Amino acid sequence: MPSTFPEDSVGLVTPQIAEFEQPLELDCGKTLPAYQIIYETYGQLNAAGSNAVLICHALSGHHHAAGYHSPEDKKPGWWDACIGPGKAIDTNKFFVVSLNNLGGCHGSTGPASIDPETGKQYGATFPIVTVKDWVRSQVRLADRLDIKQWAAVVGGSMGGMQAMQWSIMYPKRVRHCVAIAAAPKLSAQNIAFNEVARQAIMKDPDFHGGDFAAHGVIPKRGLMLARMVGHITYLSDDSMGQKFGRELRSDCLTYDFNNIEFQVESYLRYQGEQFSTRFDGNTYLLMTKALDYFDPAADFNDDLSAAMAEASASFFIVSFTTDWRFSPARSREIVDALISADKRVTYLEVDAPQGHDAFLIPIPRYLQAFSGFMQRIEV
């Protein structure tokens, strides 16, 4: 490993692509005739194949969870704080698999991929996918990697929902389930935020009904607005206040709508600008719809306890006090259902000012408990 990387880093990593020729039937009634999933691995699979951990990403996440793609990279993967030698997900112990979901825009088959039937990008014709569809596609990846059972399936936010769905659909293939800053289903308010974001994208003149690639444009303004709205919900009022307050960019007000006067305005516009250049508009629509549709209790007469009764895993559920997007009360719903179903569950509520994004931040108490749970997993 080059000396420029920290000692607790997994170092240089190279993404891999798994091609699947077997058609995948989707919940929406459509079928993908073939698809690919891009993924990364960290650590080594042991001889028994018993030390594999699956990382499921959040809405705008991807496969690059840890390490660096080149020595010139300024930042590591999005969850590098938790994955690596001696970290919570210790790569000296575990073989870690991190992927980009089907429908994504970072290398897995999605709306920006070429439709083999037309030779053009799928665009608006790419079918809607669900959390269940993601899990089914991930099962095939596990089979390809000769992983018969995950030591743990781990995820934050939307990733935590995938982890729960894994434990319900394939109970014999998951020994431990870690769901961080997640919820058993979206509230009406969360669905509303997602709809505002989708409308911002779809109403952009450059969206062209989802076929913007054919016109050589992207719905940049819509994506910027969607990201700005989303980013506000990922932060707490306290964290925004501590970070920006009402600080002005200059010494005086300009009384001009076109000028950026407050630091928080500048921050949000920067976040929106960056996001609009690296994320596909159709993928954003797909991911938010998959979130809206997630409701494992729906298959069990709206009884979450009955849904969780299918699981055989041991659970670790984590929430953060200032997370108002997926509040601690939502995590406690999961915990209550697990207790009612007589499942093994550990619950941690972390006092943290960072809001929903706290699951990405190396908060000492959070990492200590996370590490403790993972260390107890026998491989």
TrEMBL record:
<dbReference type="GO" id="GO:0005737">
    <property type="term" value="C:cytoplasm"/>
</dbReference>
<comment type="similarity">
    <text>Belongs to the AB hydrolase superfamily. MetX family.</text>
</comment>
<keyword id="KW-0486">Methionine biosynthesis</keyword>
<feature type="active site">
    <location>
        <position position="356"/>
    </location>
</feature>
<feature type="active site">
    <location>
        <position position="323"/>
    </location>
</feature>
<dbReference type="GO" id="GO:0008899">
    <property type="term" value="F:homoserine O-succinyltransferase activity"/>
</dbReference>
<keyword id="KW-0808">Transferase</keyword>
<feature type="site" description="Important for acyl-CoA specificity">
    <location>
        <position position="325"/>
    </location>
</feature>
<keyword id="KW-0963">Cytoplasm</keyword>
<dbReference type="GO" id="GO:0009086">
    <property type="term" value="P:methionine biosynthetic process"/>
</dbReference>
<comment type="function">
    <text>Transfers a succinyl group from succinyl-CoA to L-homoserine, forming succinyl-L-homoserine.</text>
</comment>
<dbReference type="GO" id="GO:0004414">
    <property type="term" value="F:homoserine O-acetyltransferase activity"/>
</dbReference>
<feature type="active site" description="Nucleophile">
    <location>
        <position position="157"/>
    </location>
</feature>
<dbReference type="InterPro" id="IPR029058">
    <property type="entry name" value="AB_hydrolase_fold"/>
</dbReference>
<dbReference type="GO" id="GO:0009092">
    <property type="term" value="P:homoserine metabolic process"/>
</dbReference>
<keyword id="KW-0028">Amino-acid biosynthesis</keyword>
<feature type="domain" description="AB hydrolase-1">
    <location>
        <begin position="51"/>
        <end position="360"/>
    </location>
</feature>
<feature type="binding site">
    <location>
        <position position="227"/>
    </location>
    <ligand>
        <name>substrate</name>
    </ligand>
</feature>
<protein>
    <recommendedName>
        <fullName>Homoserine O-succinyltransferase</fullName>
        <ecNumber>2.3.1.46</ecNumber>
    </recommendedName>
</protein>
<keyword id="KW-0012">Acyltransferase</keyword>
<comment type="subunit">
    <text>Homodimer.</text>
</comment>
<dbReference type="Pfam" id="PF00561">
    <property type="entry name" value="Abhydrolase_1"/>
</dbReference>
<dbReference type="InterPro" id="IPR000073">
    <property type="entry name" value="AB_hydrolase_1"/>
</dbReference>
<dbReference type="InterPro" id="IPR008220">
    <property type="entry name" value="HAT_MetX-like"/>
</dbReference>
<feature type="binding site">
    <location>
        <position position="357"/>
    </location>
    <ligand>
        <name>substrate</name>
    </ligand>
</feature>
<comment type="pathway">
    <text>Amino-acid biosynthesis; L-methionine biosynthesis via de novo pathway; O-succinyl-L-homoserine from L-homoserine: step 1/1.</text>
</comment>
